[in-house]
Structure formats: structure tokens, C-alpha cells
Design goal:
By secondary structure, this protein is an alpha/beta fold. 39% of the residues lie in helices and 12% in strands. It has one domain (5-381): TIM Barrel. It has helices at residues 5-20, 52-55, 61-71, 89-98, 112-115, 135-141, 147-160, 177-189, 215-226, 241-247, 283-289, 309-322, 324-333, 357-368, 375-381, and strands spanning 29-32, 75-78, 102-107, 125-130, 164-171, 195-199, 262-264, 267-271, 276-280. Keywords: Iron, Iron-sulfur, Metal-binding, S-adenosyl-L-methionine.
């Protein structure tokens, strides 16, 4: 099982309570980005394309824990950038565990072995290691040789010390189903606790836009992969069965971006983790002032090809609560990998894309011009 029984029970209880209360929009996973700085420069990443003064910014312990308190989501995914570059990350994790939050600390694992002693195994803590395929494929994806070997060594070291470890994998155009299936077999043999997989999304400023999947290619790719693994039953995915069913083209889902709200060094990001179309100062402001209906596939050009978990996992969880037998059948029988696909959302009425990234960067730079950079921040950035 990719998701622990403790997390399944507690998150399931949380979701049921939200439905009983009649809450239509509620958070499931807080996407927390305490920094954008990274020690890699992957070709498909749009999270590191900022001037140095912004890359040198950090959310404080108080800001990170305050975001968790504001939002109330039962799960916190700590991403970036590379979170292990943040010198106060152990204290942030400790504070989140004290709040009984399920933490997925996303890392490229280059610093993981070095920093393992700063953490203690806990059922609420999972290291989510980024791996995009075999050694050759992963090192190509991250634009640096030797990264796969270091990541695998770190996974084994973390497992040996009793930590929960999952992997997160992003698939791009050109991924070969046979190789992906073999890769899933390999990581399963390492004893990992789950696999998170998602199609790549073309960030506005991603350096390499040519290799992102469109929705038609995504569905066929996942069908071709999952059919090699008994409809996905062969592997322990850290995802809901209905999200996998959606990726394989068997569900017509609309995006629920409020399910995974994002807190970054800019503030609360509108509308989601993947699109920076504006920022709110508080979670309450984000929820109450965002025009949610103007985003998502069919509503906005930038969202046309997105099928990423941060937009659709919460949708699938809601569907699971409403239709538990449908989810149970997929879990027992596996994802359907042949036959007609569910109809897709029409793009006929989507509004054109607005390009606002540069404006937000300029505003942040103007704000930082009046704030002196501390010595600690500067040295931390160079670690």
C-alpha cells in the first residue's frame, strides 16, 4: 500500500467531515515552498527561474507553521527548490509533526544522507525522493550525471534508519512505457513505501517546453504503462485509485485547485501550485477573492493540457467519498487500460492566456530592494 493506514484513516475522516459540514471548497494538501533555490537546474523546471534576490528568500519557521495553521490541510507537501537547503527545515518538520500533519518532504536527495541525522523516523514524516526513471533517464532529466546513484544511495540509507520513503516521478513526452514499468519494478525492489507519478506540466517559464505531454498523449501513455503492471495493482502508488483511472482516460474530472493551495515566498499563490497568476497575503483572502471558475481545463488556455495531481488528486478524493464503490472496484480490479476513453472537457470556451510572471517578479524585486539581505540568508543560499 502506497499510503499508510494511519494516513488513509485520518485523511478520510477529515474529508468526510468536510462533506458533512457542506464545505464545497476545502484544502487537502498544503503545497509549501519555503524557498525556490535549488542545487540542480533541471531542464523542465520552472521553479528556479528567478533573480538571485528572490532565490535567496526563505520562509521562516513561524511563516511555515503559520501557513499550516491558517490552511488546516491534513497533509503538507514541502517542495521548492530543494527544501534541504533550508537550514531550519528540521524545526519546520518538527513543528508540523507536533500538529499531526502528514509531511512529504520532497527532495532530489543530493543532501539527504548528509542531513538524515537531523530528523527522526516518524509515521507522519515521509521523504519523497525525485526520480524520473533509470540512471540514464533521470540524470538526463536533471541535467547532471551521478544524481541517480546518489539518490538511490540516500533512499537505501533512509530506509535502513527506519524512515518512510516514497519516490515522485514526472513523465514527459517520449517516455517509453516498457522502460517506465521496468523502472517501477526496480524502485519497488528497493523497498520504497510508495510511488507518486504525474505528467509534466509546461510552466510559463520552463526552459524546455517541447517535451511536455498533452492530454491525449498522457492518457495513452498511462494506459500503456499500467497495463504492464496489472492495471497498476503490481505497484504501490501513493495516489488514489481514481486519480490513476483519470490519468488513463477513464474519468472526466474538473480541476479543484483549492484542494492543494500553495504558500511560497511570494505569499498564497493564485490559483494553484503550478500557476502564479497573483498572490494573497492570507489563506482566507486566497479562498474568498480568487475567481476559481476562471481557471482549470476548459476555462483557461494555460490549463488546457494539465492533468497534474496537484489539480486533480483532490477531485478524485472527493469522487471517492461520493462513490466509494467505484473507487473500490478500481482498487480491486486495477485501472482499465483498453476500450473507449471518457469524453474530455471542451476547450471551445476557454479564455486566452495572460502572461503575468514578469510583473510579479518585478513587484517582488521592488519590495526586496528595501529589505537588506542577511548574512545567514546569503550563506545558506550557497550551501
Amino acid at each position: 500500500m502506497g499510503i499508510s493506514l494511519l494516513q488513509t484513516v485520518k485523511v478520510g475522516s477529515y474529508v468526510v467531515k468536510q462533506h458533512l459540514k457542506g464545505n464545497k471548497r476545502y484544502p487537502l494538501v498544503l503545497m509549501l515552498e519555503p524557498l525556490f533555490r535549488c542545487n540542480l537546474a533541471c531542464a523542465g523546471c520552472g521553479k528556479i527561474d528567478y533573480p538571485d534576490p528572490i532565490l535567496n528568500q526563505r520562509l521562516s519557521i513561524e511563516e511555515c507553521l503559520g501557513a499550516a495553521d491558517e490552511c488546516g490541510a491534513p497533509v503538507v507537501s514541502i517542495a521548492g527548490g530543494e527544501p534541504l537547503l533550508h537550514r531550519e527545515m528540521p524545526q519546520i518538520v518538527e513543528g508540523l509533526i507536533a500538529r499531526k500533519k502528514f509531511i512529504y518532504l520532497c527532495t532530489n536527495a543530493l543532501l539527504l544522507e548528509k542531513k538524515l541525522d537531523q530528523y527522526k523516523p516518524n509515521p507522519y514524516l515521509t521523504f519523497s525522493v525525485h526520480l524520473d526513471g533509470s540512471e540514464e533517464e533521470h540524470d538526463h532529466a536533471v541535467s547532471q550525471t551521478g544524481v541517480y546513484v546518489k539518490a538511490v544511495a540516500a533512499i537505501k540509507a533512509a530506509k535502513a534508519k527506519g524512515f518512510r520513503v516514497t519516490i515522485n516521478t514526472t513523465l514527459f513526452d517520449g517516455a517509453e512505457p516498457e522502460k517506465v514499468a521496468a523502472f517501477f519494478d526496480d524502485v519497488q525492489a528497493m523497498g520504497i513505501d510508495g510511488i507518486m507519478v504525474s505528467p509534466g506540466y509546461a510552466y510559463e517559464r520552463a526552459p524546455d517546453k517541447e517535451h511536455f505531454l498533452n492530454r491525449t498523449k498522457t492518457k495513452q501513455l498511462f494506459r500503456d504503462i499500467l497495463k504492464r503492471g496489472e492495471g497498476g495493482k503490481k505497484w504501490g502508488f501513493n495516489l488514489s485509485p481514481l486519480f490513476l483511472d483519470f490519468l488513463a482516460g477513464n474519468q472526466t474530472y474538473h480541476c479543484t485547485p483549492w484542494g492543494n493551495p500553495a504558500r511560497t515566498v511570494f505569499g498564497w499563490q493564485r490559483p494553484c501550485y503550478l500557476l502564479g497568476e497573483g498572490y494573497a497575503k492570507t489563506y482566507k483572502e486566497l479562498m474568498e477573492t480568487t475567481d476559481w471558475d476562471s481557471y482549470g481545463t476548459g476555462n483557461y488556455e494555460k490549463c488546457a493540457d494539465c492533468m497534474v495531481h496537484s489539480g486533480y488528486e483532490a477531485t478524485s478524493v472527493t469522487d471517492t467519498i461520493k462513490h466509494p464503490w467505484k473507487a473500490a472496484i478500481v482498487a480491486l480490479k486495477g485501472v482499465k487500460t483498453d476500450g473507449p476513453m471518457a469524453p474530455d472537457i471542451s476547450l471551445a470556451n476557454q479564455r486566452p492566456a495572460e502572461y503575468v510572471f514578469s510583473r510579479h517578479v518585478e513587484q517582488k524585486m521592488a519590495e526586496l530592494a528595501h529589505k537588506p539581505q542577511t548574512f545567514e540568508t546569503a550563506t545558506d543560499a550557497a550551501e
